[in-house]
Design a protein that fits this description.
The chain has helices spanning 5-33, 38-66, 72-89, 92-96, 104-130, 134-161, 164-182, 185-190, 199-218. With 225 residues, it is an all-alpha fold.
Amino acid sequence: MDFSPAYLLAITQIIWIDLLLSGDNAVVIALACRSLPEKQRRIGILLGAGAAVGLRIVFAFIITQILGIPFLKALGGVLLVWIAIKLIIGEKHEEAEIPASDRLWKAVGTIAMADAVMSLDNVVAIAAIARDDYSLFVFGLLLSIPLIVIGASLISGIIARFPIFVWAGAALLGWIAGEMIISDTAAFAYVGLDVPHQLHYVAAACGLLLVVVAGYFLKPKGEET
């Protein structure tokens, strides 16, 4: 197994992003199941976690198949910028609007719909960090499962107390997004451009700055930063 500094750094980045992005899934599951009877609540949480995991597997398969198509990696980078900015802005208003349900399958349906977007966020972020290394991709995907099922809600509480981790994670996603966009060699070759390797760091830095600046101005004022 590769234990080079670059590989270990990628593992650290994946753990960090998983911690940040898996917490929302646990919150959604808890909110949707909060009105269920206690016995059904446990079943609903397990089924909701299963839905989240299943969606991640489906999205993982699709994304790994299409990222080699010209312009789609660049498009994925743009999506990653939005994910990072959304991470800073927060989604408390969306979580508050998630309805509680007193019916098991209705709650599971609510969880599945909400998790569809959140799972896509997580898989895109992991794919961007892992690049073409399937071992890293599978590691990130597998790690997200226990985080959703047993620990993400606790982790999200810790993150809420220390917002600096959210900003740092969002900045990391911005850096990766810039690298992802500039590394879409198929897209640049399609339009007849040859991008120097040195520009990768410039693009990454621009992605980081874009996320931090946009997050600062778009985050509702009065919230803890």
